[in-house]
């Protein structure tokens, strides 16, 4: 398991601090840090599931890099009260993206949950040549909305200050045309930040044609299931970005 990683933030005046680490209580997302209003489900989670009481601390975040310490309101009219300045966490570069070919069952949710915990910036489902699963327009919209909810819950649990981007199901050709994109493949070169976007193929593997469309990078010497490969790619990329690991 990777150790907890802290991102440096900036206060007005220049002193540095870290992103939320749990010492100030649970973490929630809100729309506006100046006029904080908790979503009903988040208020219920804080008060019923976590049993916070009036005056107890938690952190609120706008999902775009800014957060502040708050306290649960002491009256029915005040859901929460700010108890600290707004802090902006400087984004860590490069931007990391993990894409995965559509797979069966609840595994897209598992991938989304875990790569969000690890701190990737974007998650991209796509259709590959050998993909068995295909989402029609209605089903795609429903699944993407579900994945965004999973990412939000996972980002709250892991104290992320930015919600990962999760777009519509992408076209493989568009993805590989972007600079810095590589395909996960056991015969590839060692993974590095030269390729901050890693695409994981379907259970049937990449076609010969697809393998010619982008460089390939290796995630290790084991044959991994699709969901394991996506999580491994995220873990390796975030470790490289934070200097926990180095490419050879």
Strand content: 25-35%
Order of helices and strands: EEEHEEEEEHEHEEHEEHEH
Largest sheet: 7 strands, mixed
CATH class category label of the largest domain: Alpha Beta
What is the helix fraction of residues, given as a range? 25-40%
CATH topology of the largest domain: Alpha/beta knot
How many domains, in number, for the residues?
2
Our count of helices gives 6
CATH architecture designation of the largest domain: 3-Layer(aba) Sandwich
- End-to-end Cα distance: 20 Å
Q: Please provide the count of β strands.
A: 14
Helix/strand class: alpha/beta
Task: State Rg.
Answer: 20 Å
What keyword list fits this structure?
248 residues; alpha/beta; Ribosomal Protein L25, Chain P; Alpha/beta knot; seven-stranded mixed β-sheet; seven-stranded parallel β-sheet; 14 strands; disordered N terminus
Description:
By secondary structure, this protein is of the alpha/beta class. It has two domains: 8-89, Hypothetical PUA domain-like, domain 1 (Ribosomal Protein L25, Chain P); 97-241, SPOUT methyltransferase, trefoil knot domain (Alpha/beta knot, 3-Layer(aba) Sandwich), CATH 3.40.1280.10. 27% of the residues lie in helices and 26% in strands. The protein contains six helices and 14 strands. The protein has helices at 40-49, 107-118, 137-157, 172-176, 208-211, 226-241, and strands spanning 8-10, 16-18, 27-29, 57-61, 66-75, 78-82, 87-89, 97-101, 122-127, 165-166, 170-171, 181-190, 197-200, 216-218. Strand 9 (122-127), helix 3 (137-157) and strand 10 form a beta-alpha-beta unit. Helix 2 (107-118) packs parallel to helix 3 and helix 2 (107-118) packs parallel to helix 6. The two termini are 20 Å apart. The model is unreliable at 1-15 (pLDDT under 50).
């Amino acid at each position: 398991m990777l150790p907890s990683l802290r991102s440096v933030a900036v206060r007005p005046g220049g002193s540095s601090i870290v992103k939320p680490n749990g010492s100030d209580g649970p973490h929630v997302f809100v729309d506006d840090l100046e006029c904080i209003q908790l979503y009903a489900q988040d208020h219920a989670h804080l008060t019923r599931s976590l049993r916070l009481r009036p005056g107890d601390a938690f952190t609120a975040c706008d999902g775009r890099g800014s957060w502040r310490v708050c306290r649960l309101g002491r009256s029915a009219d005040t859901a929460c009260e700010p108890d600290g300045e707004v802090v902006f966490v400087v984004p860590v570069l490069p931007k990391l993206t993990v894409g995965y070919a559509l797979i069966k069952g609840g595994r897209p949710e598992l991938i989304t949950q875990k790569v969000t915990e690890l701190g990737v910036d974007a998650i991209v489902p796509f259709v590959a040549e050998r993909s068995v699963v295909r989402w029609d327009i209605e089903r795609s919209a429903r699944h993407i909305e579900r994945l965004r909810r999973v990412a939000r819950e996972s980002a709250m649990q892991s104290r992320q200050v930015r919600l990962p981007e999760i777009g519509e199901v992408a076209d493989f050709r568009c993805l590989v045309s972007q600079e810095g994109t590589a395909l996960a493949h056991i015969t590839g070169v060692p993974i590095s930040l030269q390729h901050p976007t890693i695409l994981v193929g379907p259970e049937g593997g990449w076609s010969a044609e697809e393998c010619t469309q982008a460089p390939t990078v290796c995630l290790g010497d084991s044959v991994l299931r699709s969901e394991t490969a996506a999580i491994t790619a995220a873990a390796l990329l975030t470790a490289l970005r934070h200097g926990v690991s180095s490419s050879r």
